[in-house]
# Entry
Amino acid sequence: MTGAAARFGWHADSYDTSLASIRYRLLMPLEALQAQGVPIARFDPARDPASYDAVIFSKSHSAGAVAAAQALRAAGRGVIFDLCDNLIAAHAVRHVSDARLARFRAMLDAATHLTFSTAMLAEQIGAAVPGATADRRVIPDALDMPDTLPPPSSRDGLRQMAALDRFLARRPDALHAIWFGKSLGSVSGYAHLHAVADLLAAQPFPITLTVVSNAPLRWLLGRWRWRLPVHYVGWRQETAHAVLQRHRVAVLPVASNDYTVGKTINRPATALLAGLGVVADSIPSYEELRPFVALDDWEGGLARYYRQWEAEQPLLAAGRAHLAARYSPLAVARQWRVVLDRL
# Structure
């Protein structure tokens, strides 16, 4: 559907398809909604905002987003402000500017509806902004289903895979573990990985660790402390799934703090959908995976995946079926459609 014909718009400050958060939160459910015949398209900045019946704002904290949201609200249209990060908590540790936080609060003020990626995030924002009266709903991210992902084909992607294969082949008897994600100072990412690297090195069986991220300098600065074989892979959308599949277990340490407790299920779910086991610390969104993976049991979980891999397969398969039913683009689009149908 063309933007001119759409009743509903979906706004983001960037539609960069290489950003997993944009694909999971916006592009995948948008495509699924369009396939169902819902008159929705990417927000067209050339259109008068008031010509839409409603606009969803995801990852939208720019001055342009605020202006569009305020114009919609003034015209009596729907303003659905979609939240997937706790910017208030990020601001508290100086990772969000005062200006961006002010725009975030302006979006909250303009919203007629609020959607959240997790129930905990909804609770956190509700506590931080008690005066907000907008209708609220929790809608999860959509996730990539493995059968929809093509293999790497570019020269750089194939080179990256070949380097990883050489690293893993040097230690064929090891438990091949992987960590992937972003870092936010002391509250998430590498800050939590350092302690787990020591735990991995202390196990009575060999373990390798592959680190997938977009911050090679921070990895290099901390890598010297780790006492196990480690390989760094720069994150690429093209190779992300194939890189995961070269490993047996994803290790996901998460310290509980105001920023992390509201995060989504995406990382352990992505690993599980790729066929891996998962050993992780628990946060609220991870709890639904407890029947299928190892939460809060690092040594036991690592040993299970090293020694009992075949015995773990029924649990892992059940976990994948659970995720496919709840987090496919079609399943998530149905939840967005409920919101739009009420406008």
Observations:
- The CA atoms of residues 78 and 312 lie 47 Å apart.
- The chain has two domains: 8-142+328-341, 146-327.
- The mean pLDDT is 92.
- Residues 8-142+328-341 form a domain with the Rossmann fold fold (CATH 3.40.50.2000).
